[in-house]
Structure formats: C-alpha cells, structure tokens
C-alpha cells in the first residue's frame, strides 16, 4: 500500500474553508487597523504621519482627510465623516461589496474576474484629477478636509 492511499482526500467543506482563510486574514487586519483608527484620533497631532502630497506639494489629494473621516464614521458621526472626505462612504461600500464578491467566488472555488471596459481607467484617472483640483479651489471649503 502506498503512503498516499492511506491519506484521506480533503472534502469539499475543507477545501472551502481553506479557500476563505486568506480573506479572513485580510478582514482581521482591516478590522484591527480600523479599531486602531477608531481609538486613536487622527485629529490629535503626533499619532499619524502627514499626507505626503500635502507635505510636499501643499495640496489636498483625494485621500486627504480619510483617516479623520474613518475615525468619525466608526464613532458614529456620519456628517463629520462626509465633511472630512465625501468619498469615504462610497469607497468603503465599494470595497465591502468587492470583498464580499471575492469571498463568495473563493467559497465556490472560482476566481473573481473583472474585465472593465477600456474607457474605465481613463474615466477614473480623470475623476481623480478633477476631485484633486476641486478640493484645492479657494473658497470651496466644503470639499477640503480642513
């Protein structure tokens, strides 16, 4: 009898559990980082580094205010979260939906495949630049994280 014939082949449940270990580790890391941001206020100086774009160029990037927005959102102040960065909630919802689709695909033994149209990267780049410019227009304080 060969050594492999005595070993039981993993069943479908074992394969499924093994498939979601990586998403589980990633989810634990994200939850841990979010718990830290919830507990340690980014508005207090000395806890987090400055945004490199703001530190080097003096302009607000699309991510500026995201830590403060996350802190406010996790602590239940949705209005303050939107004031710091209006993209926070749509970005988090999009990431959560994408993560859920990825976990579901892995659970079913498939890979998540996304084939966007050729115009989508250009549209996203244009939106990135437009939001950056809009955040830095003098007088448009409703888009700036300060």
From TrEMBL:
The protein's name is DUF2752 domain-containing protein
Q: What is the scientific name of the source organism?
A: Ornithinibacter aureus
Which UniProt key words apply to this protein? Membrane, Transmembrane, Transmembrane helix
Give the stretches traversing the membrane.
Answer: 20-39, 87-107, 119-137
InterPro entries, alphabetized: DUF2752
- Please indicate if the UniProt record lists Transmembrane helix as a keyword: yes
Q: Name one Pfam family in it.
A: DUF2752
Please indicate which superkingdom the organism of origin belongs to.
Bacteria
